[in-house]
Amino acid sequence: GVVLKKGQKVNLADNGQTLTRIKACLGWDVTNGACDLDVSAFLLGADGRVLGDDWFVFYGQTVSPDGSIQHSGDSSGEGVGDDEVITMNLPAVNPNVKKIVFVITINEAIELGLNFSMVQNAYVRVVDDSNGRELIRFTLTDYYANVTSMMVGEVYNHNGQWKFNAIGDGVAKDLAGLCEMYGVNVAG
User: Fold this and answer.
1) Which SS3 state, helix, strand or coil, does residue 3 take?
2) pLDDT at res. 81
């Protein structure tokens, strides 16, 4: 697979190949055992906001409304290898979804005084589910004490081609703050 640096964009399929099912596999290590990291995927329209309040997938809502995106469930983050996995059935993705953003948050980071300086070796890799081949890998390089959530990367559709953008940008927001940023109404 292709190893990406922050800011790089790449086609996921090459030589006219058609991808159907891919997995975004995310992993990390923590230096502070109080850090409980979680992966979420926000399914965004052309306006950069979710299609509706249930168009984000996380440990509390593991399948998208169209059934195309599935979350593996919460992980303790212990051990070696992938911690949480988002599986995508690309042909089944609602055509109004233009990008799928993968975010790692630290549960109760703000309340507990936790941040990304306590995280290391975080990565995302995208795998072709049909053969297990790793298409891309992006390892985060910036771990800042003022960051509680990290936009790791995004799979997006550009002119009918599925691509990956290595974002690697952190923000000082919790999951509720990210929901607000992407247009999810969390009051309920």
Assistant:
1) strand
2) 81
Map residue 112 onto helix, strand or coil.
Answer: helix
Sign for the CA dihedral angle at 52, 55, 59, 62 comes to positive
Check the CA dihedral 71-149-28-75 and report its sign.
negative
Contact call for residues 124 and 82 (beta carbons, < 8 A): no
pLDDT tens digit sequence for 50-102: 999 999 999 999 999 999 999 987 766 566 689 999 999 999 999 999 999 99
Closest CA to 124 of 174, 168, 76, 162: 168
User: Where does the chain have alpha helices with state H?
Assistant: 109-112, 175-181
Contacts of 133 (CB under 8 A, 6+ apart): 1, 127
DSSP per-residue string spanning 75-107: ----SSS-SEEEEEEGGGS-TT--EEEEEEEET
What is the edge-to-edge ordering of all strands in the sheet holding 84-89?
2-4, 134-139, 119-128, 21-30, 84-89, 69-71
Which are the contacts of 43, defined by CB distance < 8 A and separation ≥ 6?
50, 51, 55, 56, 57, 64, 69, 93, 94, 97, 99, 100
For the chain, how many residues are written?
Answer: 188
Query: Residue 136 in contact with residue 164, Cβ under 8 Å?
Result: yes
